[in-house]
Amino acid sequence: MIFINLITFAQVSSKTKMWCGTQDKQAREYFDSGNFGLENHLLKQSKSLFIAAVKIDPNFCDAWDNLSVCCKRMGLYDEAFNAGLRSVMIDSTNPVAWMNCGYASFLNNDIYKALTSFDHLQRIIPNNPEGYYGKSLVLYSIDSIAEARFNLIKAIQSYKANKIKKGSEVQLLLGFIEYKSGNINEAQKIFKKIYPKHIDNAELNYYLGKCIQITGGRENLNLANSYIERGITLGYVNKNETIQNK
């Protein structure tokens, strides 16, 4: 598995539109209080509140979704996956549930479950870009660059077709993939454009430095080295990286 800073995951807040909802007033109160805890980093309290909500209404898929997010943030990846799976069993067309399963598995280094979850999301909701983005992220992490690129392009097309604003993390992943594909000039353009939003990303700094080192000539060697050194300081570990020649 190649070095990667985990980029972004589905975030759920009290402002998130509910998928299935609940008719039980007490369950909804626990859910809203749990969301407040999520937004204020009170994770143990939030976990208890979401569990209370699903005990009252086991079919409250949104509470299972947010319980999954909460467990994921706590590093309880098996519990996060199981909560996501409970939500999937209630409604298999719920994209948040599949994303939670995929990212929990990815963080737990279970590549098979992660890929399977995003495959299901692609199959069941083919016009949702997150299935393609999530699968691309997982494939990139195991150095399956061509497949990662294919899925990310599909994601970008889907964001555009559905008029969904894509986050800068999508461009960041595209830059990584272009770099690994040997498209150094294109990668460098992307990295420079998004650098202010990801200034502390170790991988971005290292790869940008390598791009400048390759394309910038001797006069830019000091600049290239400064990015490379910053990347290493931030935690980048060079594990015999391979770049496809173009």
Short description:
With 246 residues, the protein is mostly helical. It is built from 12 helices and no strands.
Task: Describe it.
- By secondary structure, the chain is an all-alpha fold.
- Among the domains are: 100 residues, Serine Threonine Protein Phosphatase 5, Tetratricopeptide repeat; 60 residues, no CATH class.
- Helices cover 67% and strands 0% of the residues.
- The protein contains 12 helices and no strands.
- The N terminus is likely disordered.
Question: What percentage of residues falls in helices of 4 or more residues?
Answer: 55-70%
Distance between the termini: 23 Å
Find the count of extended strands (DSSP E, 2+ residues).
Answer: 0
- Along the chain, the helix and strand elements come as HHHHHHHHHHHH
| Gyration radius over CA | 20 Å
- Main beta sheet, described? none
- The CATH topology of one domain corresponds to Serine Threonine Protein Phosphatase 5, Tetratricopeptide repeat
CATH architecture of one domain: Alpha Horseshoe
- Going by helix content, strand content and strand pairing, the class is mainly alpha
Kindly report the average pLDDT value: 89
Name the CATH class of one domain: Mainly Alpha
CATH superfamily membership of one domain, which one?
Tetratricopeptide repeat domain
Number of helices: 12
Shape: elongated
Estimated share of beta-strand residues: under 5%
Low-confidence segments, ≥5 residues, pLDDT <50? 1-15
